[in-house]
Amino acid sequence: MNSLKSNNKSDKQIKNVDGLTTNQRRDVVLSELKRKSKIRTIFKDCEASEIKEILDRIESVFEEKYAEETLKKQNHEKMQERAQSILSEMEEKGIDMELLQELQFKKDSLSVPPPKVKYMKDGASWSGLGRRPTPFKGLSDYELEKYRKLKD
Fold this sequence. Notes:
Elements: H1 2-18, H2 22-33, H3 36-42, H4 48-93, H5 97-111, E1 119-121, E2 124-126, H6 141-145
Antiparallel strand pairs: 1-2
Pfam families: Histone_HNS_N (PF22470)
Protein name: DNA-binding protein
Keywords: DNA-binding, Plasmid
């Protein structure tokens, strides 16, 4: 009779876990694995060989993660060194950051051409391409010509 109750309880727990997102499940697992007493409870019925397999998998994941973080740190340090060398080179040649920012601003402002407006009506503009905006709908070609913008 007790085994039936425990099965119902574990079924409810499984259903509760199934309703969680992946991140929520991860948080639950990590919170359980951070306490030694919880780990003992979880692995109470497992054999030592099963626990060893799990530890080997965790260790391989750890080694991968550690190698990844080390590589990322090395790349970041190289980028810092390159940036520092570029800054020192700029100082030697007399180039300051303000000049670079001015050049960047000019480049950004010139790169976007103004839209080619062909027709203007009540503050609405239209290039003559694509769907007609609401103010121009229903106008014949003759009426549309009344709103043609003169070339400057």
